Each structure stands twice: as structure tokens, then as C-alpha cells.
What does this fold into?
Amino acid sequence: MIEFTLNDQPVSADVDPNTPLLWVVRDHFKLKGSKFGCGAGLCGACTMHLDGAAIKTCITPVASVEGKSVTTIEGLGTPDNLHPLQAAWHEHAVPQCGYCQSGQIMAAAALLESNPNPSGADIDAAMSGNICRCGCYPRIKRAIQSVSESALAYDAMATAGGQA
Amino acid sequence: MNTVNVSRRRFLQTSAITGGGLVVGFAITGCSSTPAPLPVDDAQGAWTPNAFLQVLPDNTIRFYTARSEMGQGVTTGLATLVGEELDVNPLDMDIRLAGVHEDYANPDFGMQGTGGSSSIHAHYLQLRQVGANTRALILEAAAQDLGVASSALATDNGFVIHGASRYPYAQFINTAQTLNIEADAPLKPAAEFQFIGKETRRVDAIAKSTGTAEFGLDIDVPGMHYAVVVRPPVVRAKALSVDASAAKLMPGVTDVLEVGSGVAVVAESFWQAQQAAKKVAVEWQSGPLDRVSTETLRADYAKALDAGDGVEGPNDGDVSTALSGAATLHEAEYWAPLLSHSPMEPMNAVVRIDGDSADVWTGIQFPSAVPGLVSRVADIPAENVRFHQCYLGGGFGRRGTPTHLVEATQIAVATGKPIQLVWTREDDIQQGPFRPASLMRIKAGVDESGNLIAWDATRAGGDISPDTFRSLLPALYSWMGDSMIEGVANISEWYFENFAADESSTEGLFEDYDHPNTRVTHMTVDHELPLTFWRSVGHSYTAFAKESMIDELAHAAGLNEIEFRLQNTRNNPRLNNVIRVAGEHMANMDVPAGHYLGFAAHHSFRTDVAEIAEVSVERGKIRVHKVTCVLDCGQAVNPDIVRAQMEGGVVYGLTAALYGGLNLENGAIKESNFHDYPMLRMDESPEIEVVIIDSGTKPTGVGEPGLPPIAPAIANAVFKATGQRLRDLPLKLA
It folds into this structure.
């Protein structure tokens, strides 16, 4: 029996400890937002947070998350309560087919958590583990930049200035 | 031009009868003797005026999207068309992915299929008419219910307006469903558009940013078991002997069985099935493909081109004489490799059989194929097959081939369990169907005034139509036996080899420029590899050859690359204008030292696109910094999605141009996953600027046309940067 925290809820699963976290979350806990893309940690479609850091869950044995905290796209925000990145994804019309976007957003959220003001090169470095075949990269980058601390501060200043 | 092309597209156009009611969207099923019920959702008290719309009592406006959403934004586009005339904001609609019904046919194909960048073009007037007629009925019902003249009423985003009063459309649906429409309602003039051509968001962006959009892989039904298939290293090889004893002992495994394409392993979880599949020992039959490698493929194509006895395409004027009199004569050979589509969502399908009926969940480009295929494999009536369309995690042509659906049905029948079949990434890359490899030679001549006077183009490689017949005929024509289908496919192969080129084998190789003397020759060389359409189909390789050759000719003749193109595209005025506008952009660009601009232009899927690639070569590596894309696609229904599709076409084409290439060794694909079949990633993704020329004509394709010009634009820039003319894809510096 493996016990961990999934989207702030304590959970336990009686599964082969070698089972990748991705499949435990998808098939055991029925959270289908995280995707299977390559099964080899090469594309990032399966990205979740483990204690706040972005990890590739298709190659992470569930035993290794024992006692730790896992966050999936479902735990980041919902259609009625969007995370700022999810709102930016809508605003910038980022998704095309959409299949990779849960992983992209989780990677971006982990980046902004550790680096609220990333440079273009920082974004490239943090996001290059995530493949998008539809070619949404320019929009992903714009969406991340739009919710960086400096962009939000600029927006706040502009709003305050507009009201003054 | 004296040959007849039997093309994939024309086959699709003539293989079924389009619905033909007089009043668009209302009497579409009227010609059918027993119209099938619409596969729409039951909703208490809802009004379903046609296959596309439902108005619910709470004033929810539900829109059924008939085309497959694979990222190209068609759902938003089609909702925009119907919403424009219905007067409902597409972002406020409740969007459903349509099941199978003849009313959902693609007007361009006569069947329910999505491809060929056709959807917006094909549905542009139809869905607007559906919206206009529905609105007219609501207005008429409102006039009756309110006791006023309909001319005194207006509408606003799902509400009927009378003076200062607003009434939801739903208030009038009881009366509306008693009314008939006699003639099509007038459509809005373009000047009154409030959604078409405006900057609006995508209807699916929130679902796709919150993990709530449902893809085929996300389907989970009670009792569902998971299946993977152990597949041969050489595609289509059959199993000679199977030892599954070790696999059957693995945890969770319930069934191991042979299916036509390999050995299926069924387990309680995907992971268990995948682990057990590794324990299956199979001896595979050998076949002629075992002796084929990438080198033999190319050598066989070269041999065919040397022999030159292919089928003639267009043959106008006197090419030989014109070439011998040319002031500048140039000849070159271009290579494009086999490619995998590699959509991010691997192939998958859920099939649940219950007595003589079935439920099927998958994301597919040809829903029309589903009932027939499942009926054939499961031996149940096609009308008892309920298809549940899902979002497609990328299509690119790959989701037109329904092999995975056949496999899932076979396994569901054999095991009696609801089955989710999943291809692994390795299956996806190694099993095809593939973008065909191509060897192309072009010989061309220019006179002393810079006029292109002769164009002698040849291509050798496989054709995609025979495999298209193999995969779609069994689905579309239930009365055809397997041997008859194979016979038709074989006859088509013979026909393409001996009488006329398969359209997709030479499309794009010769149409864009004015050359009075033209000869196109095609040599089919068939290694029995599974082949299919891949984003932009034949244009994905012919544009590389054609636009590289045009650039080479301009340099050889000492002419400016833009001027040369302008001078020789006068018979294609829209392409000519796109080249002119793109040329002006290029002339005004600030180019950093060490960066070079390459240009290419191409017409495909009714759309004209020119691209300028800003490239540098650093330590032997090609780096693309910026791409400017200029296009004319007629009326841009959603300009931001047009931009997104150009960005997507450029990035997909960049991966192919810089990395793409599957290699065969003893008949087996050597590459297996993204470590050895790399994809462009964010750190290499260029800035992309899209310039839409608003010509206001009927919309034309955008899903594919952004791709063809990118590879030659980069190659042409690399030539300026290094003097090296790269004629093989992927582009590699010497």
C-alpha cells in the first residue's frame, strides 16, 4: 500500500510499487488530465508536481512518492476557478489539439513558483522538456511572460495609472 | 494536359451522395427513404431544428460540430459560422462533438471526414444558412407568440429584442417547432459580421487548459480492460509462432490473443499489459521488405528515374526543344525521407460490445468509417454502432487510418470485455502508416529575358491512395468482401503505376509557375510500406523540390529571387500578390550580421503562402531565428486561428526540415521514440510573424498550407549563408 497526498487529499493505492505515478493517477484515481505521450520521460505530457517540482510521471515509480505531495492539472485550477496560467492559456489562445497542455502548464507553473520573473532563456530552459507537435511554443512563451511578476506588476501599475 | 487523375480526393467526392435538401440544414435527410435518427443528446424539452443545433429550455444553445477537432480550431470556426447568422456568440455555446450521421457529411467529400484543409471552405455557406434559417424560425415564432410583426423584432446573442424587452430564444421553441421554413433566410452582408473575421478566443481553450477536454485515451467505462499489441519489427509481418506462457503468468493479465497485426495482451491496467507484452516471444514471418533499407529505397527510386518509363502527368508544349534553347539550364535532384506523424496522443480506441450493438470512443478524422468497420469485424448491424467522437490529440493525417479501431474491436469480440487499446509511442513511430519518401528531379530552362520556358519534373516513390482504399473501403462498403477490397487496392496500384499518377504523388510539383513547356513524369516504386497523407500530403515534399529549384534557377540566371518569381507567376494572380507583399516585407527587414533570409512560396489547399526564414549557421548547425509568413486564405473566419495554424504549420515543417527522417534497416524502422526521432522544442522555436492578406473571398484552407514553404525557405537561406545547396531532407550541412 502506497500512501501519498494527491491534490491536497491523503490517498493510498494498493498497486505494484513499480507502476509509474502517471498510470496510478489516471487509471486508479481516474484523474485523466495528465497524459501519456512517450512512456520514456521524453515529451513531458505526463508532467505533475512532486512537492512543488515538475517531474515526468511516466517514469516515476509510485513507490518513490510515498509520503510526498503530488499535484496534477486538476489540482492547479478548474474551469470555474482558473489558475492565472490557465487564464493566460485561454487569453492567448495557446492550445491547439490540447493534448500536451496539461504538462506544459504544470511545467510552467513550477517554473514561475521558483522563478516568478523568468527571462526568455529561462522559459526556454524550463519548457524544453515538453513537446508540442501543434507548434504552440510562441504562444506558450507569451502566456508565461504575461503572468510573470513583472508583467503583472506592469498591469497593476497601468490599471492604477488609468484610474488616477 | 491529357491524362485523368483518379485521386484520393475525387474518390472521396464521388463515393457517397451528399445530403440534398432544398433548404439547407433543414431538409438534409429529406431524400433518404428512412432517415436515421440524429445522434444528438436527449434533453427534456429541447428543440432540435437540425443536426447542428439544439435550443434547451434554459436557453443553452448547443452546437454539434461535424468536423473532427484535432487542434486546427475547426470547432471554433464552425461555431462562428453558425453563430454569426444565429446571433449567438460562439464562446457562449455548449459545444458537442457530433456522432455519425449523413447530415454531418463534409460537403467537399460527401462523407464524414476531416482533412485536406477543407472544413471552413466546405461549410462556409452551409452552416451560415443553418444559423440564418434557425434564427428566422425563432423570429417567426416570437412574432406569433408576442403578437407583433417579425419586422419589429431584432436579436442579440440568444435573445429576441422587442423594444426594451429581451426574451430568450428558448421562450419561443414550442412555437418554433410547429413552423416550417419555406425558403432560405437571407445571409448577412460581410459588413455586418460581428464574429466572422473578428479577434475571438477559442471555444475549447479552457477545457484544454484544465485537463477537462476528453481525448480518446481519457475514456473509462466500467469493466474496461487495457490492451497493447506486440507488433512485428518489420511492418505487416505475420506471426509464425507465439509463446505467451510467461506473459500469461504476469499480474493482471487476462487474455493473450493473436490479431491480424500482432499479438494482443489484455490486462487490468495499461501498465500491466505493457509489462506482460515484453514477455511475449514471437517468431515473425520474413518477407520482401526484410531486404529493404533506406539506401535501397533511394537507390530503387533513382533507378526508376534513370529508366524514366513512368506515367506522364501534364505534358504541354515541347519541353525537350525548349530546354535545348534555354539561356540558363539547370537540373537537380531532391530527396525527402519517410516520416512519422507522431501526434502527441498515441493511437487508441475504446470498444464495448453488448449483444448486437456496440459503443466506440475514439478521436478519428473519418467518423463515417466507424460503423462499417465495427460492423464488419464484430458482425453486428452498422446502425447498432454508436460512435462517440473525442477530441483528437493531434491528427496531421494519421487519424484517418483506423487500424487501431479494427484491433480494439477484434480484441473486444474475442475477450467479451470492454477494451481500451493503446499504441505505444514506439508503435506509433515504427508501424506507420508513413509519409512516403520521394526522390524528385527537376530540369528547367530560363530564356534571356528571365522567363521560365521549360519545366521537366519527375518524382519516384510510393503512392498513398492504394492504402487509403485498403483502410476506407471496408468501412464504407459493407458488401465488399476482403478479397474484393484487396483487388480494388491492387488495381489502383497497377493503375497508378501504368496509367496516371496518384494526385498526391505529384501535386505541387508543377502548378504554380508559368512555363509554357511542361512535362511531369511519375514513377511509382512500391516497397509495400504502409503510406498515408501527412500534413500537406504531396506538397510536403514537392514544394521543397520546386521552391529550391526556383531559387537555384534565379541564382543561376543572376536574377533576384522575388523578381524572378513575380515575373513567372502572372497566371496565378493571387500567388503573385502574396509573393509581392512578402517580397516587400523581406526588403524592409533588419537583418543582423550573420543572419540570412531565404524565401519560398507555394499554393496548396486553395491557399497561397510565402515564407521568409531568417537563418544563421553556427558551428555547423542551422538555426532559424524568425519566420515571416504571408498568406491569402480569403476571408479569415478567425484571424487568430489562421495565425495559429500558420505557426503550427511552420513548427511542424521545421521539425521535418531539421530533424525528420525515419530510417529502414532490414525492413525495420530504426527510430523508436523522441530520443532518436527528435521534435523541435521551445528553445529552437523561432519567432513567427503572420501577415494575413484580407482578400475577402470565400475562405480557403489553413491547416496545411503553412507547412510546404518552410523547408525550401530555410534551404534557400542556408545557401546564402554557406554557399551549400542542401537538396536532401532533413537539411544537414556537409
In short: Chain B touches chain A through 64 residues (CB under 8 Å). The mean pLDDT of chain B is 93.
